[in-house]
Amino acid sequence: MVTTIPAIDRFLVPGELEKEADLAYSRGETAFLAGDFEKATHGFEEALSYVASFRGAEGRQVTAQRQWDLSVADAAYTEAEARLAAGDPVRAYWAFDQAVNKVPDYKDATSRREQALTDATYSVGLSILLSEQIKETLAPATPEGGKWSRLTSSIDRAGRLDLASRRDIYSAYQARIYGMVAEELRIGGLPYVRFVERLEMDRLVSAWGVTASRAHLDQVVAACRSREIPVLLVGELTSAYTKRESSTSNRVFWTVNKEEYTDEKGKKRTREVEGRAYRAERVQASSEMACELSYRLINVASGSVVGEGVVSADDRDEVDYITWNRRDGVEPQNLRVKDGKGFKRLSPSDRNVMDKRTVLRTDEDLFLEGAPALSRELVASVIGSLRYYTP
Known about the structure:
- The chain is an alpha/beta fold.
- The protein has 2 domains: 9-120, Serine Threonine Protein Phosphatase 5, Tetratricopeptide repeat (Alpha Horseshoe), CATH 1.25.40; 122-391, no CATH class.
- The chain is built from 12 helices and 8 strands.
- The strands form 2 sheets. Strands 1, 2, 3, 4, 5 and 6 form a 6-stranded mixed sheet that branches. A two-stranded antiparallel ribbon has the order 7-8.
- Strand 7 and strand 8 form a beta hairpin.
- Helix 3 (57-85) packs antiparallel against helix 4.
- It is flat.
- 28% of the residues are buried.
């Protein structure tokens, strides 16, 4: 008879862990001798997972890891030199960076990385949320198409409030988005990209005799060209809406009193009889927000588009309440509704909304709280487009 030991239980048998550690160690040694240092590292790590300090596996793992890091650094350094020779300092920078991250003192990778960074650095004009003329240029030809259509399909067009008609909110919203985008690009942007921000861009465009808020896209491009800014980022809110809906239903609640009576069998019983009636309203209201920001990255010299797209955000708020506030000192749990000839307690649906929040977040709150989502999505898209881009 053959007895099979379960895969886990067999490790409780004396010597089984040592056998597995020995096999893993042998695989590590074989891989090391073959120059496969990645596999060797994992082999020694596996041996240690079975038996701590197994046959000096710690030292072998450290040696294998070092050789693995050196091989990765060497490959990255070789790629970086080839990228430089091909006139691609951006990719050279990232390759040198990989070499340094693996082996900080590898050859002259650190200084070569700094030189590649210098060669790769260029400026991007940041001209977002400024001009109605640019907004018209960026607005989708079919505003109900694509992602925007899916985003707003649940919001009927009737009753929408266009954010652009609320200049106070519109200005605050644009300022918040711009501030977040500029800060995120400054902190988490690409090391070889310098973003030329709003005040400098305003001065640049004004030097052409154009007010920034009325500039056309071609005027901004020409202004960047005159200052040798090779890439321009333009973006505008091309759609932004809110919609509010509400409904009201009437409720009648009663207080009840206890009354003793004698039933048909002559037994004494107690029943509830109506006391005072109260009228109340149950209000259900909701507000929805949806907005989109269209952007375009432009190579100023050629006019070609480096990247473009639409980022979007939506938000929703709702309230459902019955305002009671202990009217006449009556607690909600003491209210009843009529049920035929008798009374019953309030339904959970009514009881759970007694004295709940009554005020919806304002349009301004909805938009301002949606700004971070727009900012993050825009920054991620811009960085993705520029990561390996050389003007």
